[in-house]
Specification:
- By secondary structure, this protein is of the alpha/beta class.
- It has two domains: 4-152 and 198-298, 4-Layer Sandwich (Metallo-beta-lactamase, Chain A), CATH 3.60.15.10; 156-194, no CATH class.
- The protein is built from eleven helices and 18 strands.
- It has helices at residues 41-48, 65-68, 71-80, 95-106, 158-164, 170-176, 190-193, 212-218, 235-240, 246-256, 274-284, and strands at 4-9, 23-28, 31-35, 57-59, 87-91, 115-119, 122-126, 130-136, 144-150, 153-156, 181-183, 186-188, 194-197, 200-205, 223-227, 261-264, 288-290, 296-298.
- A seven-stranded mixed beta sheet has the order 6-5-4-3-2-1-18, with helices on one face.
Amino acid sequence: MKFEILFLGTGDAVPTAKRNHPGFLVSFANENILVDCGEGMQRQFRIAGVTPMRLTKILLTHLHGDHVFGLPGLLRTLVLLDYPGKLNVYGPRWTKAYLKLLEEVALTPREKLNMEVHEVSGKFVENKDYYIESMEMKHGIPANAYAIVVKDKRRLDKKKLRKLKLPNSPLLGKLQRGEDVMFNGKKIKSKDVCYVEKGKKIVFIMDTGMNDNAVKIARGADLLVCESTFMGKDIELAKERNHLTALQAAGIAKKARVKKLVLTHISQRYEKNLDAVLKEARKVFKNSILARDFDKVVV
């Protein structure tokens, strides 16, 4: 199972001609999850050639405008196009009140959207294939970071099965569940015919000051998408506004032993000096890239 992350917006509170407000579309299996919904997100979907009608979930990191001002238009478009499913929206404290107000303002009494809103902390979605968890960040208002984790899978080794001449039967299901079985008078151990396919983990850390939870939720991630609003020279400004520098984002990636770091939420003040932002992060964490609008990353 692969993750595909489409970067629909990689700017910060002030967008630029090349960078929209934040938004990230995560696609895997039958899921299409939008992380944050900055202003202009509908247009970003159009430019990318992707329909929002296939959205299954929205994760909101916090309720500052540059992360949620795209919701009124997006919700109205979903209503007008007869969105076919139930849209689950997840966020930190205050999310329910915000979405209730948004529905009252953005939609007419005749317009209905099958939407359920959840305020979450810890693990809040789980099935046999994956789970999603959140941890609280430090940003002056309630804010979450999110980890989307595909679970390890026990797989059958087809070559070994053919060698043992095991038929397609309930025996295979038992072996895959870790049970030993008897076949033709011989005991076949699950561990001898199965292997573990390692799962995958992607993490989104948006607006926050440095805090221990950032490292905790990112630990062991295959991909960390992290806000890098400021450069190191502006660390005092970052502290004042509860944001991260590129150096700090790289430090989180290093401590958490992630495999790859994607820098995003870049301040418009560095738009003409993006190479310097990336270079700064790579001094601490080599496998870093800087996202641009409409980039795709596959994990």
